[in-house]
């Protein structure tokens, strides 16, 4: 049970609720007092004839038009009705749930002028597993995520049966869903419709879920790098603390420390200790850049993702609609907190840094399959080199080469692409946060696919490497580092089965589809726990760094 009070929600909390965790509203007197005070202040403003945007006026570029008292309730319904304009793909249910949670959290701060009963409606829907139909397209992240939040808000209050919801495997109109809950459609009060759709919580909900997955992708990416380093017989000197101490960017220091942890106990990593450098004879005196510069390259990724996580977390715990009502002073502020620029920038950064991560891994894979660079492994990691027709993982490298550029394309910025003329030039700057967030989800999807393929390379490579140092023995468990051993065995088991000392994962090309191995890893990564269990220590370190 996650208690919502307007503050303190973490990305982990958001992800948990998006996957079905139950929620409850805080019953703290100060929290409830703020909600009642701000809602009472709106009622006073209406009674005394004060001018308040969206209460006594129309919206946006039409805010110079006044609304009579007898039509103020109708105006709030129109605020939601007016935005039933979406087309295009549905928002995934997990993202809709995240958006609902964050709308509740924002309203619970007590600056939005709404009733507690209205907020409770969202909680009722969340806990019953009812998910409004909302769509990916339509929001420019300026006056909030007006279109998707309107679909959600209209469904929750039962504005019209045309608004649909999913309840389990059923699609219901919102009136039927409310009837099953024993609830009637809710008549909004002044300001309440605007408070439901005028905020950043749809794009930020999508962003939070993408960020949660991106952290996992980053942790798994570094873990995969560590496996590839073992397969390539890399040196451990690149990660030495002294090197990082004299260039002490936080992300670089973190990445090097994590690599040291991941490689501890390896029988394959080359030592650079004094008196142990005989391996250098006739070879490069140092590793190529993709190995030697790993901390310097992945450090900015760690720093960038950490900043994005902080921005999303702050946005998720903000009051982000307009106008805002100070529950302590009664002051009504006409604001721009609905602009989701922080969310947009954070999502642009997520996509950029995932693209950089995959670029690095793609180079590492290219070295791995090329005999000139892989320190004695077979071309394209062929298993049975005596067959004569085997080509190993040659085609899988092409898959990686197709996915990595796609993620690089997604890595282009969105926040700087806004038009300057939206809605009568009222929204003449806008964040494009919803587009940025949806692209972040797509980027994570593609990155997970890439990593599943990269792990197939890693498993095959360490098994072939083991055979070169243990004379035909292919189970890599005993030569790998302590931490890499767990990931190797996890990936191997979900791709094909437990390691086999007599054969590598791929021996003859026609013995099984490579696709099945990739999909086995990808399915477990998204829906299972085998790889996540092996990844847990590294992911905990990534989370700790991002929270620092």
Name the overall outline: elongated
Total domain modules: 2
- From the helix content, strand content and strand pairing, which structural class follows? mainly alpha
Tell me what the CATH architecture of the largest domain is: Up-down Bundle
Strand order of the main beta sheet, please? Answer: 3-4-5
Largest sheet: 3 strands, antiparallel
What is the CATH fold-level name of the largest domain?
Answer: Fumarase C, Chain A, domain 2
> Helical proportion?
40-55%
Mean pLDDT equals: 94
Question: N-to-C terminal Cα separation, in Å?
Answer: 25 Å
Q: Count the beta strands.
A: 7
Q: Any chance you could write out the topology, listing elements then pairs?
A:
Elements: E1 2-4, H1 11-18, E2 23-25, H2 29-47, H3 72-81, H4 93-107, H5 116-128, E3 130-132, H6 146-157, E4 164-167, E5 170-173, H7 174-181, H8 192-197, H9 201-231, H10 241-245, H11 250-263, H12 289-292, H13 294-316, E6 324-325, E7 332-333, H14 341-368, H15 394-410, H16 433-469, H17 482-495, H18 514-527, H19 530-547
Parallel strand pairs: 1-2
Antiparallel strand pairs: 3-4, 4-5, 6-7
Helix pairs in contact: 1-4, 1-9, 3-6, 4-5, 4-9, 9-11, 9-13, 9-14, 9-16, 9-19, 11-13, 13-14, 13-19, 14-15, 14-16, 15-16, 16-17, 16-18, 17-18, 17-19
């Amino acid at each position: 049970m996650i208690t919502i009070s307007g503050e303190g929600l973490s990305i982990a909390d958001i992800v948990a609720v998006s996957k079905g965790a139950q929620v409850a509203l805080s019953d703290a007197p100060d929290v409830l007092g703020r909600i009642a005070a701000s809602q009472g202040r709106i009622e006073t403003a209406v009674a005394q004839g004060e001018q308040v945007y969206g209460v006594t006026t129309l919206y946006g570029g039409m805010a110079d038009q006044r609304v009579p008292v007898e039509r103020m309730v109708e105006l709030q319904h129109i605020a939601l009705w007016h935005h039933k304009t979406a087309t295009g793909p549905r928002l995934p249910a997990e993202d809709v749930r995240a958006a609902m949670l964050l709308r509740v959290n924002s309203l619970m701060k007590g600056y939005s002028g709404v009733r507690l009963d209205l907020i409770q409606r969202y909680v009722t829907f969340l806990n019953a597993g009812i998910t409004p139909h909302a769509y990916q397209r339509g929001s420019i992240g300026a006056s909030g995520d007006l279109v998707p939040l309107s679909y959600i808000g209209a469904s929750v209050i039962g504005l019209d049966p045309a608004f649909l919801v999913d309840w389990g495997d059923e699609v219901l109109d919102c009136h039927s869903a409310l009837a099953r809950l024993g609830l009637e459609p809710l008549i909004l009060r002044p300001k309440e419709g605007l408070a439901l759709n005028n905020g950043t919580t749809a794009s930020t909900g999508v962003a939070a879920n993408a960020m949660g997955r991106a952290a996992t992708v980053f942790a798994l990416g570094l873990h995969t790098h560590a496996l590839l380093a073992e397969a390539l017989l890399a040196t451990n000197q690149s990660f030495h603390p002294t090197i990082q101490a004299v260039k002490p960017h936080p992300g670089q220091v973190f990445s090097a420390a994590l690599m040291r942890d991941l490689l501890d106990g390896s029988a394959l990593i080359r030592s650079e200790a004094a008196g142990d450098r005989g391996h250098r004879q006739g070879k490069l005196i140092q590793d190529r850049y993709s190995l030697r510069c790993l901390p310097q390259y992945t450090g900015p990724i760690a720093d960038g993702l950490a900043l994005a996580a902080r921005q999303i977390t702050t946005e998720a715990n903000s009051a982000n609609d307009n106008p805002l009502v100070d529950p302590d002073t009664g002051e009504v502020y006409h604001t721009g907190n609905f602009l989701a620029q922080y969310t947009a920038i954070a999502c642009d950064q997520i996509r950029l840094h995932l693209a950089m991560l995959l670029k690095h891994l793609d180079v590492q894979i290219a070295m791995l399959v090329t005999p000139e660079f892989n320190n004695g492994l077979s071309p394209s990691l062929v298993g049975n080199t005596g067959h004569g027709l085997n080509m190993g993982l040659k085609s899988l490298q092409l898959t990686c080469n197709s996915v990595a550029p796609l993620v690089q394309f997604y890595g282009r910025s969105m926040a700087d692409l806004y038009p300057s003329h939206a809605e009568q030039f009222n929204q003449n700057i806008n964040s494009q946060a919803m587009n940025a967030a949806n692209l972040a989800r797509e980027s994570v999807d593609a990155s997970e696919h890439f990593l599943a393929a990269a792990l197939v390379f890693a498993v095959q490579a360490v098994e072939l490497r083991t055979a070169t140092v243990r004379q035909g023995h292919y189970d890599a468990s005993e030569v790998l580092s302590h931490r890499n051993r767990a990931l190797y065995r996890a990936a191997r088991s979900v791709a094909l089965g437990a390691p086999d000392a007599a054969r590598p994962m791929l021996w003859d090309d026609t013995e099984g589809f490579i696709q099945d191995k990739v999909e086995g890893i990808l399915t477990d990564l998204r829906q299972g726990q085998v790889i996540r269990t092996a990844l847990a220590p590294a992911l905990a370190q990534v989370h700790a760094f991002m929270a620092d």
